[in-house]
Amino acid sequence: MGLKKIVRNEIVKNVLTLFSGSSLAQLIPFLIYPVLSRLYTPAEFGTLALFANLMMILSIFATAKYEQAIMLPVKNSSAINITGFCLLLITGFWIFTMLVFLFFGCNIVSLFGDSGLYPWIYLLPFSVAFHSVFQVMTLILNRQKHFRSMALSRVLQSLSSSGVKLGGGFLQVGRGGLIVGTTIGHFFSAAFLFIRFYINNKNWLSLISLKRMREQIIRYIYFPKYVMLHALSSTVSAALPIIFFTRFFSSEEAGLYAMGYSIVFIPLSLFSAAIEQVLYQDLSMKFNSEKELTPLMKDTAKTIIFIAIIPFLLLFAFAPFAFEFLLGGDWAVSGVYVRIILPWLFMAFLTSPLSFIPKIFGRQKKAMFIELISFVFRVAALSAGIYYNSLQTGLILYVLVSFIMVSYSLFWYFRLANNHDKEINL
Q: Quick check: 134 and 193 in contact, CB under 8 A?
């Protein structure tokens, strides 16, 4: 694919609109990481990582993954009813989690082995609710092609979160500054997108009814049946190193891993998410119109490889030195962990923009089983590290399993698309 053709492509333009906001949003934390790494300890970053991963896991239950159905209906009114139902689910789940943490907060903290999480555990229901609203609003605005609002929300989240974290660091409030900053960032991004949604859909409440919501709930029941379990398995799998390192090694080791993982994975995931959001809409329309899917998928894969190959090679060569130079001597080990996980991250970066393919084909059940198998092997890999009392052994085995399973998923996505293209061309 020629460079001019890539730049002029509408999908690429929309991706760049989203990624420009994401890039600016991530530039701010990257600029202040050298400051934050000297204001907070690795153990405090470990607590933040545990908090953030618990938030991601609980957010799956908050919507039962019904928000993933927002892109699918032909009628906008149907998508609005799914949106309204998700907001009701989030409200109910917030009430439930508040009660659980009020009564069992201390027990939950003890279970994960990080006493520093208390009393910040009580912010978790709020962070879950804000993050879930953000996810729902992102998808409905994506459906309506409000890409600029989506990009601005990421910038707002980054500014507010980073500002609070810096302030908390200078005031020496410890891990609370990191956790409160994360929660504040989620609040402002969710509020911004909800306001934009309301402005663009002032009659949205009049479109919602119990009957219409019930119709959509039944029609897309496979999302809580299969997609939710798939997402839960995937999210817990990604969180396993943090949970295992905190519980069986130390929150400091978890923080060192989390810093390296975050600095590399977050920019990759944002770029990948921007591609996915645009591709999801375009490929869904092509599928509904019985048009070929494989050419666009191949072009996307080639573009990702072209963009990623040199940065990944540089990271592999210089990660330990770069982390020590930028973040301070305490963080050199983070670069070592980055070098170990790079093969998995590269394959995940290539595959994740296409992770919605099973939803288009209604193959969520198989996708769920693939993720469950991956989860079991990942647990076994980290357990081996605990058995041999070697964090690096567990991490290497975890990366090997992850690389193999993600590679298989990519192969399967292309096979689904190829079979579809053959059928429509008969």
A: yes
- Chunk the chain into consecutive blocks of 10 residues (it has 426) and report each block's average pLDDT, rounded to whole numbers: 48 55 69 91 95 95 92 84 94 96 92 90 96 93 79 87 94 93 95 90 82 90 85 89 93 94 82 77 81 87 88 91 89 93 93 88 85 93 94 95 95 92 82
For 258, the domain range is: 3-424
Q: Taking the complete model, does pTM exceed 0.85, yes or no?
A: no
Asked whether the bond before 119 is cis by omega within 30 degrees of 0, the reply is yes
Position 43, amino acid: A
DSSP run (H or E) holding 130: helix 124-143
Q: How many residues does the chain have?
A: 426
- Give the phi and the psi of residue 73 in degrees, each rounded to 5: -65, 150
Instruction: Tell the residue number behind the tokens 């492509």, with chain if given.
Output: 9
Closest Cα to residue 165, out of 55, 254, 33? 33
Say if residues 63 and 95 touch (Cβ distance below 8 Å): no
Closest CA to 101 of 65, 134, 56, 55: 55
User: Measured between alpha carbons, how far is 119 from 127 in angstroms, rounded to an integer?
Assistant: 14
Amino acid sitting at position 258: A
Burial 362-388 (b: 16+ CB within 10 A, else e): ebbeebbebbbebbebbbebbeebbee
Q: Which of 70, 131, 62 is nearest to 277 (CA)?
A: 70
Domain count, the chain: 1
Element (H or E) spanning 334, and its range? helix 332-351
Are 296 and 282 a contacting pair, CB within 8 Å? yes
**Token pair listed for 71:** 């892109």
Say how many CA atoms lie within 13 Å of 331 toward its Cβ.
Answer: 28
Q: How much is the pLDDT for 16?
A: 55
Cβ distance 349 to 301 under 8 Å?
no
SS3 for 216? helix
**Amino acid making up residue 86:** C
| pLDDT the model gives residue 356 | 86
**Residue 389 CB neighbours (<10 A):** 10
Q: Contact at 8 Å (CB) between 101 and 108? A: yes
- Give residues with Cβ within 8 angstroms of 99, minimum separation 6: none
